[in-house]
Write a structure and sequence with these properties.
The complex is a heterodimer.
Chain A lengths: L19 H6 L14 E7 L5 E7 L1 H5 L3 E6 L29 E7 L2 H9 L2 E6 L6 H4 L24 E5 L2 H7 L2 E9 L2 E2 L7 E7 L2 E6 L4 H11 L7 E4 L15 H13 L3 E4 L2 H6 L3 E2 L1 E10 L5 E13 L19 E9 L5 E2 L7 H18 L3 H8 L15 H12 L1 H4 L10 E13 L5 E7 L5 E5 L8 H13 L6 E5 L16 H25 L9 E4 L2 E4 L2 E7 H5 L5 E7 L10 E13 L5 E11 L6 H20 L17 H4 L10 E5 L22 H13 L10 H9 L1
Parallel strand pairs in A: 1-12, 10-11, 13-17, 15-16, 20-21, 27-28
Antiparallel strand pairs in A: 1-4, 2-5, 3-4, 6-16, 7-14, 8-13, 9-10, 9-12, 14-15, 18-26, 19-20, 19-25, 22-23, 23-24, 26-27
Helix pairs in contact in A: 9-18, 13-14, 16-18
Chain B lengths: L11 H5 L10 E5 L13 E3 L5 E8 L2 E8 L4 H8 L18 E4 L2 E4 L12 E3 L12 H8 L9 H14 L5 H8 L9 H14 L2
The chains are: A alpha+beta, B alpha+beta.
Chain lengths: 738, 206
C-alpha cells in the first residue's frame, strides 16, 4: 500500500473536535440562537393547492394585526431565486404556484406567535390548474404543463435533459452476453431532515446586506444573494459559524434568506425568519425519487458485458439539481448506456441529499446485480468482486483504488463466506440473512483559499471560509494547518464562515472541503513558514532552507538540538501573514474516487415483517484518514441515514389533494437509537498522491452502499426481492406470505 | 400596520436588562433575585391585553427568574428568547425530536411541549447548568472524547437525556442507555457515539 512520505505529528490520530467544548456546553451559537437589537420574527405562508394561479391576495387584515411590520408576496417582492430552479425562472414567490408548499407570502412581526397569527389572516384566492403528481404521467403529452418547456426538465448545460452517457458498444455488449436480464427498481422522495430547522437573519446597514444564514457555503450564498439582489459582492456579508446539519439542502442561498432580506428592507429592522418542521419537510427539498429500468448482459460466470439504464427521476416543481443516477460507478462495465429523464411534477422539489445521485441508484443496481448473481447461481461476494470498478468509465485509471481490499477486509470481518446461505434457507419464522453492496463517491480537487496569521507569541490564527455542517471540517482544517505549519493544534485558533473576514471556500458539499480548501491551507502554511525561516536565518546562523519548524520550535534540519522557540523568532515582527489561493487538478487522463464495501447481517421476523440489523461492517477506501475520530463518526452516521431510507422513510403525498401527509419526524420515521446497530468501520488506509496528506473523501460515501446492503441481506433472509423502497414491514409480510 | 403603543421595541436583550415593557411580547422583569419556593404550583397572575399573559417564577439551573410570558409560550421559547439559554435547541417544536430536552424535577422532558406557565415552582436543569464552573460534567467530557456531537444540534438534548438516565441509574447497560436516549433523534446518525459516551461517563463515575 502506498505510504505517506513522512511521519505526521497530528494527521491520522484520534483528535476531538476543536469546538467540542462549545458544542457540549450549549455555548455554540447557531444561527437561530442569535438575537439582534430590534429583531423581528418571520413566518412563511405556503400554497395549499398543487397547481393554481393566484387571482388575488388580500393581506389587509394581517397588516392591521398589532405587531405586524411587513408582509411580502409575489406582487410586492418579485425577487428571482436563480439557484432555486434551472429550467424556468423561479422567484421567491411564484404565480402560478406549482406544488403544495410553494411560498405565497411571508410576514414579519414583533413576535413569532403574532407572525403565525398573521398568516391565518391572509386571504388568497386561487384559480386551480390541473396537476400531475406521478413522473410517468407527467411525461404524457396531455399532462398539465408545469414548466414552459414541458415536464421533461430541460435546462442549460448541466441541467439539460435527458441526461445521457455511454461508452463502448452497447449492442455488441449484449450480443457478447450469455444471459441478459431486465428489471425495474423504485425509490421514493426522502427528506434530509437535519435537526436544525431553516433559519435566516437579515439586516441592512446603509445599503449593505448582512445575512446570518444556516448555510453549507457562505461564499456561494454570498454570490447568489449578490446576483439576485443586484448588489456588488462587497455589499453582501454572509455569516455561518455553527450549523445544525444540512446534508445537501442548505448549500447556497435559499428563498428564506431572500425573504428575510426583503422583510428586513420593508420593515427597516433586522428579521429572523424561521421555518417550522413542516416547512422544512415541504418547503425546501429532499432526495429525488426514481424509477430505474436496468438491462444487464452477463457471462455465465457473472462477468458484466453491458449495462443499460433507462430512468425517470421526479424533481418536483423546479429543477434545483441534476436528477442523475450514478450507482453504476463502482463496477467494471465495458459497454454502457444510460438515459435519465428528470421530470417536473406538482410535488415537493427534489435536489441534493448526501451523495445526491447515489444511494437510490446503488440500491437499484446492486440489488439487481445480487439478483442476477442468484439467477446465475453465483455467490454475491464473487459477483461483486468480479465486477468491481478497476477503471473509471471503463477506461481512465483512478488516482488510487483499494476497493478490492475493502471487499476482502469487510467480508472477512463479517465472515461473509461462512455465513452466506441459500436465500430464505433459515428454518422458523425469524430468518437470518447476510448481504453486501459497493459504494463510494467522486474525489476531485479544486479551488480553495486560506489565510494564516502567525502572532508575535508564536500562536497562529487560521482563516478559512468553510462552514462545519457536522463533518468536523473546522477541526480538519486546523489539523491540516497544525501539521503543515509545525505549530501544535492547541496553539491554533480557527476563524471560519464569515465572508467579510474569511477567504473563499467552495462550500461544504460534495465532500469537497478537505480536497479544495485543504491544499490552500497547506500552501498558506508554506508561505508563512518561508517568512519565519527568513527571520530565523540570522539568529540561527543558517540559510532559510536549512531550517524546519515542528512543535512550535524552529530548528536546523542537520542538527535538531539547535532550536529556538517560534515565539522568540517572531516576537518583534508584528503579524506574519501567509496566504494562498490554490486550484489543483488531476492529470488529464485520470479520475478520482473513494470506494466502500458494506456488509450487513439481519434477522427478519416473517410474522411481523420487522427487520433487525444484527451486525454491520463498513469498509472504506478514503485514502489517508486525517482525523480517525470524526471520520469514523461520518461513516457511522451515513449508514444510519441509509437505514432510514431502506426501512421507513418516504414523503407520502395524498393522491387527491396533493398535500404531503407526513412532513414531520414521527410520521416520516427517521431512525432512532433503538434501530441503530453498532456500525463497525474499517478504513483501508493508503496515501493518495493527489489528496491533502493522502486523504480523499469521507462524508458523502457512507450512505451510498447502505440501502442496497440491507436490501440484499433481506433477500438472503427471505428469498424475496424487494424492488421498491422503503422496505416496510407490511411489504415484507405480504411478500413472504405469497 | 399599526404602530405599537410604546414605539419601536427594544431588543429582547435590553428587556433582560429591565429597560422596557412593550405592549407586545414578553418581558423579563428582573433576573435571579426572586423567591424560589417550589411549592407554588400553577397560579400565575394574568396580565396583558385579553389576559393572555402571566408573570411566573422560573427556577433554572438553581437561579430564580421572574418572567412575564404569553400563556402559549413554551418553556423552550422562554429559555431561549427570554433567558438567553440557547443551549436548549428547538428541532421540531412538536415533541418528536428531543433537541429541546431539559430535566424538570429529575425527569428528562421536551421543553417544546411544556408551557412556560406550567413551570412555576419546578426545578429546571438545562445544558448550561451541568458544568460546575470550569469543571465539565463527566458526561460532557465523555461526549467530547467519544465525538458525541457531529453537527451538535441534538447534542444538548442527548446529554440531558443521558444525564437524567444516569441520575436514576448510574450504571446502565447498553440497552438501557439506548432506551434512555431513544427520545432524542440525531439525524447525523451519531447514535453509536452518544451511547458510548453515556456508558463511558457511567464507567468513569464509579
Amino acid at each position: 500500500m502506498a505510504q505517506a512520505p513522512k511521519e505526521y505529528s497530528i494527521v491520522g490520530k484520534q483528535t476531538p473536535r476543536i469546538d467540542a467544548y462549545e458544542r457540549v456546553t450549549g455555548q455554540a451559537q447557531y444561527t437561530g440562537d442569535l438575537q439582534l437589537p430590534g429583531m423581528l420574527y418571520a413566518r412563511v405562508l405556503r400554497s395549499n393547492v398543487p397547481h393554481a394561479k393566484i387571482i388575488s391576495i388580500d393581506t389587509s387584515k394581517a397588516e392591521k394585526l398589532p405587531g405586524v411590520k411587513a408582509v411580502i408576496h409575489h406582487e410586492n417582492a418579485k425577487v428571482p431565486w436563480s439557484s432555486g430552479g434551472h429550467t424556468h425562472r423561479r422567484y421567491i414567490f411564484n404565480n402560478p404556484v406549482r406544488y403544495v408548499g410553494d411560498p405565497v407570502a411571508a410576514v414579519a412581526a414583533t413576535d413569532r406567535h403574532i407572525a403565525e397569527d398573521a398568516l391565518k389572516l391572509i386571504d388568497v384566492k386561487y384559480e386551480k390548474i390541473p396537476h400531475v403528481l406521478d413522473a410517468n404521467e407527467a411525461l404524457k403529452p396531455d399532462a398539465p404543463k408545469i414548466a414552459p418547456n414541458g415536464n421533461l426538465s430541460v435546462g442549460k448545460g448541466a441541467f439539460s435533459a435527458p441526461i445521457e452517457e455511454s461508452w463502448g458498444d452497447i449492442e455488441q455488449g449484449f450480443k457478447d452476453a450469455d444471459r441478459v436480464f431486465e428489471d425495474t427498481y423504485i425509490t421514493k422522495h426522502v427528506n434530509n431532515a437535519q435537526l436544525e430547522r431553516r433559519v435566516s437573519i437579515a439586516k441592512w446597514d446603509a445599503g449593505k446586506l448582512t445575512v446570518y444564514a444556516s448555510t453549507q457555503g457562505v461564499s456561494n450564498a454570498r454570490t447568489d444573494i449578490a446576483k439576485d439582489f443586484a448588489l456588488p459582492l462587497s455589499k453582501v456579508r454572509v455569516v455561518c459559524k455553527y450549523m445544525g446539519g444540512g446534508f445537501g439542502n442548505k448549500n447556497q442561498a435559499q428563498d428564506y434568506d431572500y425573504m428575510a432580506a426583503m422583510l428586513a428592507k420593508v420593515a427597516a429592522q433586522p428579521v429572523k425568519l424561521e421555518f417550522t418542521r413542516e416547512d422544512d419537510y415541504i418547503g425546501m427539498h429532499g432526495r429525488w425519487a426514481s424509477e430505474q429500468h436496468y438491462k444487464v448482459g452477463v457471462k455465465n460466470d457473472g462477468t458484466i458485458t453491458a449495462v443499460s439504464l433507462d430512468a425517470v427521476t421526479n424533481m418536483g416543481a423546479y429543477r434545483k439539481q441534476s436528477g442523475n443516477l450514478s450507482g453504476t460507478d463502482f463496477y467494471n462495465i465495458p459497454n454502457f448506456k444510460k438515459v435519465i429523464k428528470p421530470v417536473h411534477t406538482n410535488t415537493v422539489v427534489a435536489a441534493n441529499y448526501r451523495a445526491p445521485a447515489y444511494p437510490q441508484s446503488v440500491f437499484g443496481f446492486a440489488s439487481f446485480l445480487d439478483q442476477v448473481a442468484f439467477e446465475l447461481g453465483v455467490n454475491p461476494l464473487d459477483m461483486f468482486m468480479r465486477n468491481r470498478a478497476q477503471k473509471s468509465k471503463g477506461k481512465l485509471p483512478f488516482t488510487s483504488n483499494y476497493l478490492e481490499q475493502c471487499i476482502l477486509e469487510g467480508s472477512k470481518r463479517i465472515g461473509f463466506s461462512e455465513k452466506w446461505h441459500k436465500p430464505g434457507a433459515t428454518a422458523g419464522p425469524v430468518k437470518h440473512g447476510i448481504g453486501m453492496a459497493l459504494g463510494g463517491y467522486p474525489f476531485r480537487p479544486g479551488l480553495g483559499a486560506a489565510t494564516i496569521r502567525v502572532n508575535p507569541d508564536g500562536t497562529a490564527h487560521v482563516l478559512v471560509g468553510v462552514t462545519d455542517i457536522g463533518t468536523g471540517a473546522k477541526s480538519t482544517m486546523a489539523i491540516i494547518a497544525s501539521e503543515a505549519l509545525g505549530i501544535p493544534l492547541n496553539q491554533i485558533q480557527l476563524t471560519n464562515g464569515d465572508t467579510d473576514v474569511t477567504p473563499y471556500s467552495v462550500g461544504e458539499s460534495g465532500s469537497r472541503t478537505t480536497a479544495f480548501t485543504g491544499p490552500a491551507v497547506v500552501a498558506a502554511a508554506e508561505d508563512v513558514r518561508k517568512q519565519i525561516f527568513a527571520l530565523a536565518s540570522a539568529p540561527m546562523k543558517s540559510k532559510p532552507e536549512e531550517l524546519d519548524l515542528r512543535d512550535g520550535q524552529v530548528f536546523r534540519k542537520a542538527d535538531s538540538a539547535q532550536r529556538i522557540a517560534l515565539g522568540q523568532i517572531v516576537k518583534d515582527s508584528g503579524d506574519l501573514i501567509g496566504r494562498a489561493t490554490t486550484n489543483p487538478n488531476f492529470p488529464k487522463e485520470m479520475d478520482g474516487k473513494c470506494f466502500s464495501a458494506h456488509f450487513a447481517e439481519v434477522e427478519v421476523d416473517t410474522w411481523t415483517g420487522h427487520v433487525r440489523i444484527t451486525r454491520y461492517v463498513a469498509a472504506h477506501d478514503s485514502g489517508a484518514i486525517l482525523n480517525r475520530l470524526t471520520a469514523e463518526s461520518q461513516i457511522k452516521g451515513g449508514v444510519v441515514q441509509g437505514i432510514g431510507m431502506a426501512f421507513s422513510e418516504e414523503l407520502l403525498i395524498d393522491k387527491v389533494t396533493a398535500i404531503p401527509i407526513n412532513p414531520n419526524y414521527r410520521d416520516a420515521k427517521v431512525p432512532t437509537h433503538l434501530e441503530t446497530p453498532e456500525v463497525e468501520v474499517i478504513f483501508v488506509e493508503h496515501y493518495d498522491p493527489y489528496g491533502v496528506f493522502g486523504g480523499k473523501v469521507v462524508g458523502e460515501p457512507p450512505i451510498t452502499a447502505a440501502v442496497a446492503t440491507i436490501a440484499n441481506a433481506i433477500f438472503n433472509a427471505t428469498g424475496k426481492r424487494f424492488k421498491e423502497l422503503p422496505i416496510t414491514p407490511d411489504k415484507i409480510v405480504r411478500a413472504v406470505q405469497v | 400596520m399599526e404602530d405599537e403603543k410604546k414605539g419601536t421595541r427594544l431588543s429582547r436583550r435590553s428587556f433582560l436588562k429591565g429597560i422596557g415593557g412593550g405592549a407586545i411580547g414578553t418581558a423579563v422583569i428582573s433576573t435571579g433575585l426572586v423567591k424560589s419556593d417550589s411549592a407554588e404550583g400553577y397560579s400565575p397572575e394574568t396580565s396583558g391585553a385579553g389576559g393572555n399573559r402571566a408573570t411566573i417564577t422560573l427556577k433554572v439551573n438553581g437561579k430564580a427568574y421572574r418572567v412575564e410570558v404569553e400563556h402559549r409560550s413554551t418553556l423552550a421559547e422562554v429559555l431561549r428568547d427570554e433567558l438567553g439559554l440557547t443551549g436548549t435547541k428547538i428541532g421540531c417544536d412538536r415533541g418528536e425530536c428531543g433537541a429541546c430536552t431539559v430535566i424538570i424535577n429529575g425527569h428528562n422532558m421536551y421543553a417544546c411541549s411544556q408551557l412556560a406557565v406550567w413551570m412555576q415552582g419546578k426545578d429546571i436543569l438545562t445544558v448550561e447548568g451541568l458544568a460546575k464552573g470550569d469543571k465539565l460534567d463527566p458526561l460532557q467530557e465523555a461526549f467530547i472524547e467519544h465525538d458525541g456531537p457531529q453537527c451538535g444540534f441534538c447534542t444538548s438534548g442527548q446529554i440531558m437525556s443521558g444525564k437524567a438516565l444516569l441520575m436514576k441509574n448510574p450504571k446502565p447497560d447498553e440497552a438501557q442507555a439506548r432506551r434512555g436516549l431513544s427520545g432524542n433523534l440525531c439525524r447525523c446518525g451519531n447514535y453509536n457515539r452518544e451511547v458510548a459516551a453515556v456508558l463511558a461517563a457511567a464507567a468513569k463515575s464509579s
